Structure formats: C-alpha cells, structure tokens
Here is the input.
Amino acid sequence: MLEQLKALAKEAGKIFLEAVSAEVTAKEGVGNFVTDYDIRVQELIYSRLKQIHPDAVLMGEEDEDHTADLSGDCFIVDPLDGTQNFINGYRHSAVSIGMTRAGEPVLGVVYNPYMDELFWAEKGKGAYCNGKPIHTSAAPLSESVLLFGCSSYNREQTELTFRLLRQLFDQALDLRSSGSAALDLCYVASGRVNLFFEYQLSPWDYCAGSLILTEAGGFASQWNGGKLDLEQGGSVLAAGPNAYAAALQTACAVLA
Ligand code: 2AM
Ligand code: CA
Here is the structure.
C-alpha cells in the first residue's frame, strides 16, 4: 500500500505544477482557482484511495463534514497544504496523505512537487526522503533554527504564538516561516531545522508529517504535552530529541 500512496502523492502533486504553468490564476481569479484545484486534487486522491483500500474511512480538508470514525483504518488527506504559497507562486506546497489505524498514524506521505521531494514513513520502519533515510538533528535548542506558523486565519490566537516565538527565539539560533505545516514537519524530520510549532492546525496538516517526524527520531505533541489530536485538530510542537524537552517547558510556561 505504501508504494501506491507514494505514486498517488506524486501524481496529485504534479497537478500543482500544471496549474502554475497554465497561468489560470489571472484568468479565473485567485480564490476560485485555488478552490478548484484543492477540490480537483482531493477528488483524484479520493477516487484512487477508494480503489487502494475500499474499507478505509476518508477525512480530507475539502470535505463538508470533518467528523470521521477513526476506530478502523482512516486516510487523512490535505490535497494542497500551503494554499497561500500556491496562490502567490511561492512554490512551497505539498500533498499530504496519512493513514491511521485504530487512531494511530501508520503510514504517511508528503510530496513537494516544486522540489520533487517525496517524504514518507511507515510505523516502525523509519522515515525517508526520495529513498534516503532521514533523521532529526541532535542539536539542543540553543543550536536550533525554528520554524513556526502563526495561525494567521485566527487573529485572536496569534498573541500566544508570538509570545512563544519570542521566548524560543531568545533560546535558539534563528527562525523561519514557510506556510506549509506538512513540509515544516518533514523539514524537522530531515534535520534542516530543529523545531516547528503552530497554535491551531487541523489533522490533515500534521497526520502524515507527524509520523514522518517521529519515525525520523523526533517528538511531537500539543503545546501542553498532550497527544496530537487527529479528530479535532489543535496545537503542534515538534522537535528533534535534544531540543524538545526545553521547547515543551517553554510552551507550557506560555500557556500557564
Ligand atoms: P493549508 O495551506 O492547507 O490551508 C500555515 O500556517 C499552515 O496552517 C498551513 O499548513 C495551512 O494549511 C494551515 N492552515 C491554514 N488555514 C487553516 C485553518 N483555518 N485551520 C487549520 N490550519 C490552517
Ligand atoms: Ca489545504
């Protein structure tokens, strides 16, 4: 099944490239254009997933109803993570497909078509990028570059984000913000940065990426240390093994 999911993520991601080269944006309007592509890509992914695993439940960002029964097998899909980047031609977006079994992530694939980078993991079998094993950085927080998202769509929540950002930045080396939570988790997994946090995300933003991260040796939780919520969504704090504890302590202090 993993091989089928890898091929599917690549097939779906290639559609982003066609959209950009076709310059449909200016013709049809940015909002409609993105909505059309999000839906088109999710439809493609859903039709393939129904063939690959007919018994699995599907949960995707473009569904009208996001409630899903996680007791069996469930695919959790973001057809296009990094929508704002896609609209702006920033060329940093991804397809994200995770599979949970009895509520736990067991398969994850994240594909960035602009870099032709396919990240994947299977529970207990390590994490890979384009066929090579990936590992988190061993750096402590003091030697870490941070990635964050500020949940900008909900301005009331940004205060806590910027408080945590200030406190983590003061203990770390530098910071970045990329606009794709799925890729942020893969970048922590591959040691390109060593910490990612965002206050409010949805399960499809992090289901696949969180498995890739933990299989690469990292840790991921909510800001309060609780397990990532794959039904409702919530906060995410993800880091390499030697930065996580200090980051979690800081996040808990900010929440207190
Ligand atoms: P998206 O591009 O698929 O919308 C950027 O900070 C991250 O937040 C992206 O992964 C983005 O996913 C996600 N995001 C954007 N709007 C969101 C929302 N309303 N709820 C949860 N996550 C969101
Ligand atoms: Ca999306």
Notes: The helical segments are 2-22, 24-28, 30-52, 83-88, 158-171, 181-189, 203-215, 244-255. Residues 21-33 have pLDDT under 50 and may be disordered.
